[in-house]
Amino acid sequence: MDQIILKKITLLNQTMLDSLTELDNLKIIEKFTEVGLKIFEADFGFAWWKTSTENEEYHLAYKSADLPYIPQLPRERGGNFEAMKNRTPIFVENVKKENYEKKYDVSPYMKSYVIIPITYNKYLYGNLILCYKQKHIFTEGDKELSISLGNITAQAITIRDFTQKEYDNLKRTEMFKYTWKLLQQEKIKTEFIANATHELRTPIAIIKGNVDLALKSGFKKIKPERALHSIDHEIKHLSQIISDLSILTSGAENLKDQIIFKEVNLKSLINHVAEKSKTISYKKKISIIVKKIPNITIWGDETYLEKMLTNLTKNSVTYGKIGGHTEISAKQSGKFIIINVTDNGIGIAKEDLPRIFERFYMADKSHGRHENTGLGLSIVKWVAEAHGGKVNVKSIKNKGSVFSVILPVNKV
Ligand code: ADP
After folding, report:
1. d(CA 258, CA 291)
2. SS3 state at 334
3. Residues within a 6 A CB radius of ligand 1
4. pTM, whole model, 2 decimals?
5. How many angstroms is it from 315 CA to the middle of ligand 1?
6. How does pLDDT run along the chain (412 residues), one tens digit per residue?
7. How is the chain split into domains, by residue range?
8. Span 3-171: which CATH code?
9. How far away, in angstroms, is 363 Cα from ligand 1 center?
10. Do the Cβ atoms of 59 and 51 come closer than 8 Å?
């Protein structure tokens, strides 16, 4: 075999290796059409793809960027059908105008072309069509090459389909599911540790900065009160993070064990949270309104339920507008109680909504990291779930948010 053909076959084999990791058959077709154009030195080309093995329907799988006309679907009497039926390439060196009906007239655009069936053993996937603007004489080498191009493309697709099937089978096995779960847990753990480390590092860096500056300058560059205030602020922030982390790291299962269920009076719990929150809401002139709460007792852990409602109320203030309001209401619906915390604050963008219950996720970066840890809503979710309930949110950017906690009233 001559050297040039050998090089071209090597390029085809390389493309085959490249496509082993490709997850999409059409991408493989794209790769091979482009390589086909290169090794045949053709001007443009496209590929037909057989829609199913049962019928004779085709669609355009790929077309090169500068294809000058829209290919018509293969017709039963046309070269495409013939190439596929006989599983041999068809070479046309001189497209004659009279050979085409008016509407399929491609002669102004191409003078020669080759149709190569993509076929290997019993499999037939479609055709590759490589076209020349000028008349092209096909050599014996071209003829050999066209068979290799069709075969290797088909082999690449067969191998991909095979590996995909094997992979799908593997995914169904218990071992795979178990390993996958372990990997996911490991990933969650690693991300959690990375995020926690990052959050803890910032306040420590600020404390260290203040101490360094004071020590180096003998309090000349920073006033003692300012340094101590800053340090005090960061220590409070650190303890907030640590206390939030200690709830979350106990893990959903363990958290359930930690929860001490007893009867909790809903009305006094909500009133207590509202009163407590007024110490932070007054600065922003936000009024906290408690609607009529049903006089019932629910089954839960008062400390955690209080933490959950405090987080929601605190958020409604943090992300509330000056002079705004927060409304806490509750209604019973069968065996469940629905507690709504509604505000008319800054709201949450649609794209952030699915993520706000994730640990450390902060949708509104402008509120920075002062009092916030990005952990509040994850705690809300965990507490709600540990009580056999759930939490939902509805929010409109710039209008406000409603967080709804749904809890079973009785023992779960
Ligand atoms: P953070 O400590 O940042 O408040 P959370 O987990 O409590 O952490 O909340 C996650 C993010 O969800 C917040 O950073 C904020 O962007 C958004 N968010 C929570 N509650 C509200 C609310 N009531 N109004 C607007 N945005 C909110």
Report:
1. 31
2. coil
3. 311, 315-316, 318-319, 343, 345-348, 356, 361-364, 372-378, 401
4. 0.56
5. 6
6. 578 888 898 999 899 888 888 878 899 999 999 999 999 999 999 999 987 766 778 899 999 998 988 888 888 878 898 998 899 999 999 887 665 555 566 777 889 999 999 998 878 899 999 999 999 999 999 999 999 999 999 999 988 888 878 878 888 888 888 888 888 777 777 777 877 887 788 789 889 999 999 999 988 888 999 999 999 988 988 988 888 888 777 655 555 667 789 999 999 999 999 998 998 899 899 999 999 899 999 999 998 899 999 999 999 999 999 999 999 999 999 999 999 999 999 999 999 999 999 888 877 766 655 567 788 998 899 899 989 999 999 999 999 999 999 999 986 6
7. 3-171, 189-250, 257-408
8. 3.30.450.40
9. 7
10. yes
53: Cβ contacts below 8 Å, ≥ 6 apart: none
User: How remote is the CA of residue 269 from the centroid of ligand 1, in Å?
Assistant: 22
Pocket test for ligand 1, best of 321, 377, 397 (most atoms within 8 A of CB): 377
The amino acid sitting at 291 is: K
Rounded to an integer, what distance in angstroms lies between the CA atom of residue 114 and that of residue 91? 5
Ligand 1 atom at shortest distance from the alpha carbon of 347: 25
Q: How far apart are CA 98 and CA 399, in angstroms?
A: 69
Top CATH class, 257-408 = alpha beta
Pocket test for ligand 1, best of 243, 355, 364 (most atoms within 8 A of CB): 364
Q: Where are the alpha helices (DSSP H) in 58-173?
A: 79-86, 140-172
From 243, 309, 314, 315, give the residue whose CB has the most ligand 1 atoms within 8 Å, as the site to mutate: 315
